[in-house]
Amino acid sequence: MDHENVIGLLDIFHPHPPDATLEEFQNVYLVTHLMGADLNNIIKMQNLSDDHVQFLVYQILRGLKYIHSAGVIHRDLKPCNIAVNEDCELRILDFGLARPTEFEMTGYVATRWYRAPEIMLNWMHYTQTVDIWSVGCIMAELITRRTLFPGTDHIHQLNLIMEMLGTPPDDFMKKISSDNARNYINSLPPTKRKDFKVVFKNANPLAIDLLEKMLELDADKRITAEQALAHPYLQKYADPSDEQTAPLYDQSFEEKDFSLEKWKELIYKEVMNFKPPASFAANLERND
């Protein structure tokens, strides 16, 4: 991936002699952008102005639009997976749980506090908007400096979400394929949705409106990354001509049934043939 708001691969090499054989090939080093703190550190250290929140959320969504356009779901967005440098420039990290959108998914992914309700309700074909839910949780944390849904376990997490968003309507309940999940929600006492203007009483009204659209219980009604970028709250930074998309990710190689040695051979060839981005190569030459 090649985007200003997504961690990139600048170089790849192995520490072995140039004439090392495939059998001696044991280690690989990846070079990525040097970033400073992550959002978790930033939130703990200081209060953020509304302008800071706008700029940070805009960059997250800009990176997500690029990731989603490739047909990929990140599935583990959280403050410590978002790096920020001293100029407040941001990159999304850690694609260890990322998957193509058409894959059947498991329910137990994403760090619990930022996990979309449809994941906990065992929807096997959830969409890219699970990432938008996570962004909503992160944005709320940027505003209040508190975790929005700090569940202590799976059930407590679901309870906190229902307490905030209220008892789900019938059309939502019909989408839950798990009988156990549906029965559990039906067992909860009826709850009214909390007023976001009260929960986030000092926040910019436009920020509250965007939060409501991202923290939508029904994934089918939740705003997309591209739609969120066009929201009035982010108008100061929005520039559709500078919000690039990516080629569709080709995951066909993941379906190959190769031996361990064959995979090792392919990785070795990839390392040997890798060409650093032109900008990174130029910087290396200047520093030599």
From TrEMBL:
Pfam families xrefs: Pkinase
Coiled coil: none
Record EC number: 2.7.11.24
Highest taxon above the source species: Eukaryota
Keyword Nucleus: no
Protein kinase domain location: 1-234
An example Gene Ontology molecular-function term: MAP kinase activity
GO annotation, biological process: cellular response to stress
Keyword set, alphabetical order: ATP-binding, Kinase, Nucleotide-binding, Serine/threonine-protein kinase, Transferase
Cofactor dependency: Mg(2+)
Stored InterPro entries: Kinase-like_dom_sf, MAPK, MAPK_HOG-like, Prot_kinase_dom
Family, similarity comment: Belongs to the protein kinase superfamily. CMGC Ser/Thr protein kinase family. MAP kinase subfamily.
Name under which the protein is recorded: mitogen-activated protein kinase
